Amino acid sequence: MGHDHSHSHGITATGKHRKRLVAVLGITLSVVLIQVAGAVFSGSLALLADAGHMLSDAAGVFIALLAAWIAARPASDQRTYGYQRAEVLAALANALVLIVISVVIFTEALRRLGSAPEVHTDVMLFAAVLGAVANLVSLLILRGAQKESLNVRGAYLEVLGDLLGSFAVIAAAVVIMVTGYQAADTIASILIALMILPRAWHLLRDVVDVLLEATPKGVDVQMIREHIMSVDGVVSVHDIHIWTITSGVPVFSAHVVVEDEALGARGADRVLDKLVTCLGSHFDTEHCTFQLEPATHAEHEAHQHA
Fold first, then answer.
1. How are strands ordered across the β-sheet holding 287-294?
2. Which pTM value belongs to this model?
């Protein structure tokens, strides 16, 4: 006997914050154009690296918005969960793009180490300060939503890296203005590349966890088992599976062995209601499926999981 508390496949976590992403996309693209022009006129590799990073951010936000639109399409017999995993695939693309950008920046910076060209610091500083202000505004826009969606979190982390990158460019410009040490621009480029990689790795790791259907972070399987066992009439629980379809959509299923007498009349409904309430209130899992089994049937079950 199975029971599914919720069959809703409505708006996803990214879709809820679409307007925030659109605002950040507009800000980011505007600053990219200014920084590219500033890099051309100033000769700053660090500024160009920051612009390249921001361009990858803009591409990532666009992909996230596209994925949110695709994910909102209804489920079908062929795709019973709809297209919600499109958001996770978009986050994967974001992580890979970040890695490529960092490698390109790092390679070009190493090539320049021995012969740093002259940099015009006035244009470089102006564009970097403008980028820092824009990144700070984007961070404030995304801050409230970044815990709910992998894609929004990816955009938030990318903008945070951009802000740090802008600070690095500002510092390099000041050093060159004060000391004339042109290699500061190249060093700032290397720092930007090194800042991108850890963020890309963490995002990639989270995406892989979702794709491998790992237990969501913060979920204690043993504690869930104990809560289920505390329900009157439950003898044991096995084949527990907990995974994530996309950000904000955890899924739970389990086989619950129940005393035979508890399955009579409305007993099964009472057990299911208690189980669903337990999962929903204690573990914030609305989409849960339970297979109830009489204790006398337990010996016929082949356990596939804990």
1. 2-4, 287-294, 250-258, 234-244
2. 0.70
